[in-house]
Amino acid sequence: MASSSCIAYRTTILAEHTTSPASGTSSLASLILPKIKHESPQKLSYTHNQNFVHYIADAPSDHPDGDPSAGGLTYLVVARADFGRRVPFGYLVEIKKRFLSAYSAQSTDFAALPAYGAANFNGVLKKLLVEYGTTQGGQEDAIGNVQHEIENVRGIMTENIERVLERGERIDLLVDKTDRLGGSAHDFRVRSRSLRRQMWWKNVKLMALLILVIIFLIYLFVGFGCGLPGWSRCVGSSKKHHG
């Protein structure tokens, strides 16, 4: 289902699981988290190429009896677009429930936790990503969660990530693509150098052949004047001159 999931307090990632570090999807989280506001609860999806970035952002109003820092929590998942939104948001509802069961909003100061301060929750993220992404039962549970917790999934805002991120951040987002293109450019340069060498040798051979043809033509031109093949006219006149 997903290639990356994390739980964060503001911009500090507390727990994370990435199925493929090379995919670059975890970098999406670090770009999106600073854009999330916690004045009011949010449920939002961003589109990015073939992926959707879904998140649930809490606000203080979600935890009136808890530590104020609980209002700064974000639950995020990066999933393929073909999974739609019901399963990913059902997954987010479930990890929020389990996370707050493990880290009580009433007794945990999330603002005091360091980066990956809840890393022992990474295993739960991994387990649920597999369960909700690959089993029919898990997907049905996700859909049940989202129907119970979110009345109207269609009401969840969807924005294109490119419109939200600043130009410099979009450039950062393209780092993985640039690296891949860089490899292609290197291959292209190698092939270009090889082609240039081949063309240079071809030109050298053509020039050498042209010079040989010119020499041969001069030989024929002079030779016809001197009486080829014996060069009798030139050789004979030379002998008479010396005699």
Which strand order do you get reading across the main beta sheet?
A: 2-1-5-4-3-6
Cα separation of the termini: 105 Å
What is the C-alpha radius of gyration, as a whole number of Å? 37 Å
> What is the overall silhouette?
rod-shaped
Order of helices and strands: EEHEEEHHHEHHHH
Low-confidence stretches: none
Relative helix content: 40-55%
Q: What's the main sheet like?
A: 6 strands, mixed
Tally the beta strands. Answer: 6
Structural category is: alpha+beta
Mean pLDDT: 77
The total count of helices amounts to 8
Beta percentage is 15-25%
Write structural notes for this entry:
By secondary structure, the chain is an alpha+beta fold. The chain is 51% helix and 17% strand. It contains 8 helices and 6 strands. The chain has a 6-stranded mixed sheet with strand order 2-1-5-4-3-6, with helices on both faces. A hairpin with a 2-residue loop joins strand 3 and strand 4. Helix 2 packs across helix 4 and helix 3 packs across helix 4. The mean pLDDT is 77.
